[in-house]
Write a structure and sequence with these properties.
The structure is a single chain. By secondary structure, the chain is of the alpha/beta class. Helices cover 43% and strands 17% of the residues. It folds into 2 domains: 173 residues, 3-Layer(aba) Sandwich (Rossmann fold); 187 residues, Rossmann fold (3-Layer(aba) Sandwich), CATH 3.40.50.2000. The strands form 2 sheets. It has a 7-stranded parallel beta sheet with strand order 3-2-1-4-5-6-7, with helices on both faces. The protein has a 6-stranded parallel beta sheet with strand order 10-9-8-11-12-13, with helices on both faces. Helix 2 crosses helix 3 and helix 9 runs parallel beside helix 10. The radius of gyration is 21 Å and the shape is globular.
Length: 375
């Protein structure tokens, strides 16, 4: 790949800030860099002490769309090559990139599920989505579900490029848990887990209810909930439900990446019983692929793009949203059937290995042409 080929990445969320948007921005930058593309990143500043060295040049801007952020984006694009391809990793970045791009620069705007959903519920959000879609050279989404939603909201065709799995998750987990609660779980215990922010759309309360019902049949099973609280009322409801449940349910807070990988490797299944919420949706469910990389199948609901991330009865189980009985049946299927569990684990691993970030770049219009030409 010619070193003169340039990409500029703009992101209002970027690692180490947790979440799918930040992961997308980081891993797409890395995949382009590995392909020999000259990459520079204008990323949100979540505190200089949190930033880590990356094999790409990056600059810092503000976390919100304000005058300072606008000036930073304008300056960033003004000094970029005239023919650079600009990847705007979220709706905020895309709006500013469309305003300040130079005539020959091409903007690829990425839509995530919740951004597109807000566009279908709010006049202001819809207007922003339409401006971005019509001013971008290409719009792309993290799943076919999100792509369809963007097209419905904006009237502009939007392609889908499913998210990928970084090499970190494909490396076998080793060592003991750093978290004391996880370290205390007996080796013979069957573990299920949920990784994600504590907010209603993740459905942790439904999973606790399912394990409460299953406790008499599987007294040795443990359900682990990990993630940071973003909805205080929902977090308190989870703690109250845990306290009243006869099942072994443990909230372990935020884990290190190494412990997350160990938890996936240790778990029978990841559970993500997502619910429909007015302002947020699981556009894809990257966590399911990361778990799959450790041979951990997933039990999810058919919300948003989760049914694209998990292939029903091949890499996991897809249940109807809000159907507690179906969720209980899915957990029981894996808890009581070792052979089926092994089949789904093997299928999950194969799918994860085939979904690299290089493939995501290759599937993204314009980026595939300058970066990775094959999967």
């Amino acid at each position: 790949m010619r070193s003169s080929v340039s990409a500029r990445v703009i992101a209002f969320e970027f690692a180490p800030f947790p979440g799918g948007q930040g992961t997308y921005a980081l891993e797409m930058s890395r995949a382009l860099h590995r392909a020999g593309v000259s990459v520079e990143v204008l990323a949100a500043n979540y505190g200089a002490e949190l930033m880590e060295p990356y094999p790409i040049a990056y600059k810092l801007t503000h976390q919100k769309v304000n005058f300072g952020a606008a000036l930073a984006v304008r300056s960033f694009l003004n000094v970029a090559p005239e023919d650079a391809t600009v990847l705007a990793c979220d709706i905020r970045a895309a709006l500013l990139a469309c305003v300040f791009k130079r005539p020959r620069q091409r903007v690829v705007s990425m839509f995530h599920g919740s951004e597109a959903l807000k566009g279908s519920r709010s006049v202001v959000a819809r207007s922003i989505c339409m401006i971005v879609a019509r001013c971008s050279d290409v719009t792309v989404a993290n799943s076919q579900y999100t792509s369809t939603l963007v097209t419905d909201v904006t009237g502009v065709a939007c392609s889908a490029a499913l998210l990928g799995v970084s090499d970190f998750w494909l490396v076998p987990a080793t060592g003991e848990f750093e978290n004391a609660s996880l370290r205390s779980i007996p080796a013979s215990t069957m573990v299920f887990c949920t990784l994600g922010r504590l907010e209603p759309r993740k459905g942790q309360l439904d999973a606790i209810d399912a394990f409460t019902r299953l406790a008499p049949r599987h007294p040795g099973a443990t359900y682990v909930i990990a993630g940071r609280v973003v909805d205080e009322a929902y977090g308190k409801a989870i703690m109250a439900r845990i306290a009243s449940s006869p099942a072994d349910v443990r909230y372990v807070g935020t884990l290190s990446k190494d412990d997350v990988r160990r938890l996936y490797s240790r778990s029978t299944a990841l559970i993500l019983p997502a619910r429909y919420e007015p302002s947020a949706v699981e556009g894809f469910g990257l966590v399911t692929l990361e778990a799959a990389a450790q041979g951990c199948p997933s039990i999810v609901t058919n919300v948003g793009g989760l049914a694209e991330a998990v292939v029903n009865q091949t890499t996991g189980i897809v249940c109807p949203a809000g159907d507690l009985e179906a969720l209980i049946e899915a957990i029981e299927q894996l808890a009581a059937n070792p052979e089926n569990r092994m089949e789904l684990a093997a299928g999950a691993g194969r799918r994860a290995r085939s979904h690299t970030w290089a493939r995501t770049v290759a599937d993204t219009p314009f980026l595939g042409a300058i970066g990775v030409s094959s999967r």
